């Protein structure tokens, strides 16, 4: 039973990590679904979100209430940042080859990382993110911490909210239309520019929330903290089928569980290699991902 | 006859320029600091040329070239230190090992294109780095590998020899690539970039040529790494991270994708810029990505795009100088620019 218990514990830890990946993967998948761009800077938005919350919490002090309240400024800030990046860096490149936008995205990502590094208030050295005292709830030998509980609750609430926005609002309908066929949507009177900006805003706000959750779970924040979660979330998005919203959530959970199981039972060093190996495998075997639709190529 | 004469003259021009530069380094006309910077620039140019072959000419964005460089560097170091292989052979071995990795990474191109392929190459680069960290017997692990024997033990000659070896290698790579690109293989590669489906329809074995380009590109990247190992004498897996791969990409993009002259100019220019901007400390880290973004938005064809994406041609220059009629108006051979 001991093995089973440990397995369940690792799976639970994996699911909480996976929920963070899922939140981040949603941003990747929505942006890719709409403009076919891998937004490399998305992981760095997570970093910015964590830092905004860090400054807010340092000012207000850390209590459960302030932690929840700090989501608001952080998500708003990243929302604005996401829109600004889209308007200044990606919009001018929209009718150029996709590779150009991809390279620009890498540039934006490095700009955010190194920019954060040179801002004196952030700097290159890791900082300790304020955390609540650790409380564990144990049930059948499997324990769940308060931070993990927070991660699950926030992730589920945000995903339900996103689901509502995408499937049951007018702008969500516009988003789906643009991702289906941009030109046709434009002819139907949809303001494509606004929909794209809205998608970036939505994705960035989710990334900010993911950043706070990530920083609460691993309370060390530094300018380059977004790279690895960003990569993993991208892998999650591809795994689930890029462009597919349920796919992103599924991919995030699978990746999180795979990663913690590797860490728990194989080697902690190899977990990054496993994630990339998984990516290469899925791309070679089924490039459209688990829930994505295989797409034929148009000549 | 005239064509042969041009080739011979060009060859001599290149040899004389290289010799002159080496002599200038030896007698401190070019001081040691500058020659060191030029040597680093040369290595950067070599790797960037390799990247340009796959990303600029074949149109397959690769984001893991630092990984090939790492394979080349570590293999060279291991061959030299564990098996006492002579430097020159060890370097060839390093480059060949990188080529093998390039071949393996080229295989997924069968099914992947565009941004997916970019991510896979990125993933391979990261996996190589993680493996390097986890093989301490061969690579020294995260602490790095110290005491790699230099090109020569003679302290006074060391900068001269390093400079000369890098300069000659770079020249050879440039000559090789410009000739390759003029050959039918090169045309096949470029046709893949222009339109893969059309190239396929014209009977070009797209998969074969992609693998071919990947292997050669990795070989050249590995060669850069092989030069790196004895030149610095120290290797650490974190030298070859994603950031490094992007530095090469910036060189290629700034010079102009699919332009060898541009890569050489941008490689030397950016390496110099990095030195000049040292007084800015960390702020220079911000300048690089800003250059990348601005180039992509305002001048996506790079510096050489301003000159109609032409290549510097040594043979054309020689023809003009010796008064021979230019056999081909747009001949593309280019060499000797160190």
Task: List the keywords.
heterodimer; A: 299 residues; two-stranded antiparallel sheet; globular; B: 338 residues; mainly alpha; 14 helices; disordered C terminus
Structure characterization notes:
The complex is a heterodimer of chains A (299) and B (338). In chain A, helix 10 (227-240) packs across helix 11 and helix 10 (227-240) packs parallel to helix 12 (271-285). In chain A, 73% of the residues lie in helices and 4% in strands. By secondary structure, chain A is mainly α. In chain A, strand 2 and strand 3 (142-145) form a beta hairpin. Chain A contains 12 helices and 4 strands. With 338 residues, chain B is mostly helical. Chain B is built from 14 helices and no strands. In chain B, 70% of the residues lie in helices and 0% in strands. The longest helix of chain B has 27 residues, at 206-232. Classes of the chains: A mainly alpha (299), B mainly alpha (338). The A-B interface holds A 36-38, 89, 92-93, 96, 98-104, 106-111, 114-115, 117-118, 124, 227, 231, 234-235, 238, 267, 269-270, 272-273, 276-277, 279-280, 283-284, 287, 297, 299 and B 59, 61, 63, 108, 111-112, 114-116, 118-120, 122-124, 126-127, 130-131, 133-134, 197, 242-243, 246, 249, 253, 282-283, 285-286, 288-290, 292-293, 296-297, 300.
Q: What is the percent of helical residues of chain B? A: 55-70%
Average pLDDT of chain B:
83
Give the spatial strand order of the biggest sheet of chain A: 1-4
Uncertain runs of chain A are none
Mean pLDDT of chain A: 86
Rg value of chain B = 20 Å
Can you count the helices of chain A? 12
The largest interface is:
A-B, 44 and 39 residues
Order of helices and strands of chain B: HHHHHHHHHHHHHH
End-to-end gap of chain A: 57 Å
The description of the largest β-sheet of chain A is: 2 strands, antiparallel
**Shape label of chain B:** globular
Oligomer kind: heterodimer
